[in-house]
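Reviewers of the previous submission asked for a worked example of the structure-prediction workflow described in the proposal, so we include one complete record here. The input consisted solely of the amino acid sequence. No template or homolog information was supplied to the procedure at any stage.
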Amino acid sequence: MLEMEYKFKHSLVVMGQLAQETARTPPSEDHPPFEYIDRSLTILGRTFDAHSQRMQREFLGQREFIASQFREVEKKMDGRFKQVDGQFEEFEKKMDERFKQVDRRFEQVDRRFDKQDDQIRDIKVQLENAAAFTRNGRLRRMHQPINLIKVLKLAGDRNNLVWTSHPQVPKHMKNTYILGQQAKGVFEPSWEAKPNQEKAQAKQEALQTISELAKFYDIVIWSDDESESDATEVVIQERTVDDYMDALLVEWGMDWQKILKLGAQHMQAQPQQAGVKRAGDASSRGETKKPREREEESD
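From that input alone, the workflow returned the following structure tokens.
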């Protein structure tokens, strides 16, 4: 009991509390036991309050310290996350640039394939043109079809070259002959009864057709008194029809002079064939009448 009393009175917490307010002195042995216990409990209660406040302050301090540590860690983690985000953004930029390079490479490869496809197409059409050119040179009859010769022309968007032929190319040699002759004002016998106005219109249409064909196949004929650079427009007159027709047919693998000769022979043969046909018709009609004549004579 005395040892506990001694330790209690000399405790640092108790001594600090005794220095405050009313509990300034420890209870003495001279006090009655109950007063001694009351004063001791008072000191003990005040000591616990002081200790609780101290612990609360220490707890709040520790909590603030821990919170500050968490804030520091959070700040460091935010910086780290930002650094990682920056690295990811840099990586994405590099990957985007890489993908763009790959896309450009594929585009280059596609263009190369397209170019090769165009080259294959050009070779194919050129072979077809060579075959058509050869077959046109072997035509001998007026109604044999003309094989079309294709040339490279810009398409509607003005950015694409295509192989094409002109829609007004004559279908066969007879049409070619008629086109050239009408452009010179020479018409078939069947046109003799037609008015001059209709003939003049047909002549202008033939000249216009030859002009469009010459432009399409890039044919320009210049006279002796002008240079090649001066003749930039196609101007076809009656006196230059044979020159343009000759140049056009050379492009198609044909000979205009041969067509003129075959056409003249064909036109001369038509009346004879018509006469033979009429004679044949008359003879056939005569044969049908002979039995009737015999009957009349017998009567």
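Confidence is low (pLDDT under 50) at residues 1-6, 274-299. We consider this example representative of the routine output the project will generate in years two and three.
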